[in-house]
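Bit of a strange request maybe. I'm writing a small parser for C-alpha cell strings and I need a real example to test against, not something I typed by hand. Could someone generate the C-alpha cells for this chain?
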Amino acid sequence: MEQKLYIPDVTFTSISSLPDVIHAVAKYEVEYEPREIFFFREGTIVMWNVSDLEGENILQFLKRYEDNRYVDYTVQSEKEMMTYTYADSGKHNHIKSGNIILAASATNLDKYTFSNAMAQSVKLGIWEAALDNYVESIEFVTEDLKAGRRLRMTRQDVLKKQGELFALRHSINLSSDLLDTPDFYWERDDLETLYQQTCAYFNIAKRTRVINEKLNHCVELVGILSSHLSDRHHIRLEWMIIILIMVEVAFETLHYIDRYFS
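Reply from user aminoacidic:
Good idea to test on real output. This should exercise your parser:
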C-alpha cells in the first residue's frame, strides 16, 4: 500500500495457497497486538485491531482502485463490527455472546477463517440491500396490476429489470460460496468447523434461503410483466395487420368501382 504502511504477509500466502486473499500486516507497531488486514478479491476487507480513523483512511485510499463501487451509505450500513479477545490456554476458537474468542495458539489461518465468514455475511448484506432496492423500484407495478391500470413499463424496461435480477441471482448462487463450504476447508476439519460455526452465527444459510425466495417471487412477477407486454405487443401487431388488410380491401374496392363506372 501507499507509503508502505502495510506489507503483504508472504508467510500466510505460502501456507494457505489462497490466490483470492491478501493478508497485510502493519509495518509499524503501535501496541503489542499487530494490526492486520485481509483483502478479499470480491472487494470485502476485514481489519483486525485497526482503529476507526485508520480504517476510514484505508477505505478512502482504496477508493481510487475500486470498480463499480457501492454507495457509501450501503457500505456503512452493511459493515460488521465485532470485538475479540484471547482465551485461556487450552480453549478453542469460538464465538460467544457476539465476541470472537481466539485460542492462545490461534494462527493467521484462524483469523482468516473468522474473516472469511464475516466477509460472506457483509457480501450477503450488500446483496440483500440491492434486492430491497430492486423490489422498491418495481413496487408500483404491483399497484398498477391490482388497480387494473395500464403498466407504466415498456418491454425494454422489463428486459433491463430481468437482466438486473438474473445478474443478482448469478452472483448469489453461482459466483459465491454461500451455498456450500469453500474448497479450502475440505482438508482442514478444524477450520471448517470454525467457519461453519461463524456462518451459523451470522445466519448465512437462512438469509441465503430467504433472499432466494424473494428472488423467485421477483422472477415470477417480472415473468408476468414480460408475458403481458408481449401479449399486448402481439395484439397491437394483429390489429395493425387487420387495419392494413382493411386499407388494401378499401383500395381494391375503390379501384373496382372506378373501373366499373368509367
